[in-house]
Model the fold of this input.
Amino acid sequence: MSALVQDPLPAVLAERLTEEQRQAVLEAPREQRLTVLAAALGKPEPEMLVALATAAGLSVASNLETDPAARGLLPARLVHDYQIIPIRFGPVAADETEPTIHTPLHLASAWLPDAVMTDWLRTFTPRQLVWHLAVPERVHQLIIENFGVGSGALEDGEDNYIAPEAQQQAEEVVDEDAAVVRFVTDVIKQAVEDQATDIHFEPQEEQLRIRYRVDGLLVPVPVPENLLRFQDAIISRLKIMARLNISEKRLPQDGRINFKANSTVLDIRVSTVPTIYAESISLRLLNQKKEAYTMDRLGMSPAEQEQIVSVLDYPHGIILVTGPTGSGKSTSLNAFLRKINSTDLRIITIEDPIEYEVPGVNQMQVRAEIGLTFASALRHVLRQDPDVIMVGEIRDKDTAEIAIRASLTGHLVFSTLHTNDAPGAITRLVDMGIEPFLVASAIELVIAQRLVRRLCPNCSVPEPISKIKLIETLAILECDAAEAELITALKSPVGCDRCRGTGYRGRIGLFEIFRLNDELHELILKRESTRTLTQAARKQGMRTLGQSGWEKVKAGHTTLEEVLRVVTVVEK
Done:
């Protein structure tokens, strides 16, 4: 067994830090200390993990697998507070027997163990402790998977464990109301860590199900076994935070929560609807301080950026971004605004909700409940001497007409529309009742987009692919099937500690750019179908969403399965 590290930071590393840096490391939460240390020493986290383990005389555990036989040994609160998890280590024997007090207990930790932690562990198990360092994100994820998010807050039992840093809050911790408050906070914090956009609390017959929407997909969240007992208190807590009427359980309600935790500032939109078991609550998380995306980070190729930037310089006209909810339309518009933002332009936005704060831009929040709709706000904005206007969404004929009038009177207008592809935006506007000659005169550019999950750069590997399957897939994506002859392997997901076993980390955009010209103007005036517009645009070089996805697959950014999942091939 490796010797226990008594000093929380080995001298060989501590002496390379200033006193201020050392304090910053030790004062950070255990799961964040490696990140802070790596930043202080200017090293990548994987390299820093190995260096820290070596300096402390510990091993690094990778591809962690939890030890189910040891799961019940430790209270959830201790596991959460100290960020440790019992793991299997080494080969598992076929005739493995039940562990005894003489069987070593292998523990993966996000940070170095200390004497206080070990003393607590010895009050729960007499087994010999063998410590291993591991990727903090993976340790935390395994704790959530095995104990449930917020399980440290709702834990029952008589173990009398209270973390040292929570001694002064001991009376609060055992109070049920305080436990629910802490649980709800833990659920939201975990959603932020997982980069979720939504949280859904869904009462079922025998459980309260919680799900996050991460990278566009709904992911079930492991929850404590005793969660159902706290269901009503949790729902009430969320409604109180959103300043809703907790006694009204028959009608849907909408509210907002301003949530602050450490450096995280969230504007949370809350929606409740009554179901047969209890109220279902959905939270939309808007991180007001999150890093804004550039066109590069969105995944646009240099050629795509060149097409778009050339129109961003126009003094007037409409640029539309289309796609389903959650496809990143607002994020793209924000990137365009940041691209052109300057002191000599007056930019005003009308949004619902305001997802990003843009320095120097006048941003307005729609409030339909008091009559401040997109259309009414747009009328007032035109009297504000704007150069550039961003309208969050064109939802009706009224808004569309005002936006087109604004573009024809010398304003550059950005907006979004819900259509499957870029040429479909033209027919959608005509279907709304806008005259084709106005649409043809005002629209300069339409961008359809989707988001696909990005392959984890740490674990994705090339994998041979069937020629027949590839040819069939390229036909579905309307790509050149002849390219299949040149492809022998494509990158595929594997799963590692860095991507929490999913094989994917983050998302990247697919784009279809529809640039209007004289020929397309004539087709619009004749009220031609979306199919005809698409065929004409493709002859002039427009790349479809399927083709954009295939380019991302060839570049190793994503997989064919991901592209097929998000690209809806519509008969035109």
